[in-house]
Amino acid sequence: MSDTSLANNTGIVKRGDTIVSVNNVSKIFKLKKNEVHALKNISVEIKSGEYLSIMGPSGSGKSTLFNMIGALDSPSKGNVEIGPLDLTKLSSSQLAYVRCNYIGYIFQAYNLIPSLTALKNVALAHVFTGATEEEADAAAKKCLELVGLGHRLDHRPDELSGGQQQRVAIARSLVNDPTIMLADEPTANLDFNTGAEIIGILKKLSIEQGVTVITATHDHKMLKNSDRILWIKDGAVDHIDNAEDLHIDEGAVSSLSGGDELENLIEDNNRT
């Protein structure tokens, strides 16, 4: 399968279609003579244009699942499909192509290059796709304007606030026009108001740009903008909720139908 056929295949997915299929996925890490079952037979489908939050206590497996969906790790059993592509059947170069062209990544640590301006931090990701410097700068400028940083193009990371640095990271994740945006604890290092602004940006991108947003988070305020919440406990799917079926307040979540399993999971999450 060539890189061109990868591009053509993923391009056929329309909004509302299933864009990610996780099929009976297990992940086992071997530590000397011991085995750690990080994921246990997880199956879930995610729709194109959906905003899905993966919620669970530390060590529950949500980051491992996040890495599977993002083609950053491979399952011990089962498979992950993005559109018509089975990630377990792709070569390392094809996986790199998928990561570069179809998935945007946002991390809690921002991961910006200190010596580069906001414009060049974003543009660099576009250069990796083969764009010229002029093309990359133009695309980076457009994305930075989209997240409200058109006036900060020439500022380096140490000249930006934490919230502004995360906006640069969001712009970088958008510059290659991804099908899926993966955000790993994107508000963890931000104050409440700044975190809420970042969440609003992600929701806006989901609605207006049709980007599928998948977050791994501990942050309850992230849930208000979700379409669905996937709750993970001990490496398995404990519960999947539509956000409209939950009553979400700052620091607290409860089910309108009062499910005991959900309440127990929320208590576990609040203790971590």
Secondary-structure element string: HEEEHEEHEHHHEHEEEEEH
Q: Determine the mean pLDDT.
A: 84
In whole angstroms, the N-to-C terminal distance is 44 Å
At the first level of CATH, the class is Alpha Beta
CATH topology tier name: Rossmann fold
Would you identify the regions where 5 or more consecutive residues have pLDDT less than 50?
1-12, 256-272
Task: Write up what this structure looks like.
The chain is of the alpha/beta class. The chain has one domain: P-loop containing nucleotide triphosphate hydrolases (Rossmann fold). Helix content is 34%, strand content 29%. It has eight helices and twelve strands. The strands form three sheets. A six-stranded mixed β-sheet has the order 6-7-8-3-9-10, with helices on both faces. Strand 4 and strand 5 (85-86) form a beta hairpin. The relative contact order is 0.16. Residues 1-12 and 256-272 have low confidence and may be disordered.
How are the SSEs ordered, and which strands pair?
Blueprint: H1 3-10, E1 18-31, E2 34-47, E3 51-55, H2 62-69, E4 77-82, E5 85-86, H3 92-102, E6 103-107, H4 118-127, H5 133-146, H6 162-174, E7 180-184, H7 192-208, E8 212-217, E9 228-233, E10 236-242, E11 246-249, E12 252-255, H8 260-271
Short description:
This protein is 34% helix and 29% strand.
Which descriptors would you attach to this protein?
272 residues, alpha/beta, Rossmann fold, disordered N terminus
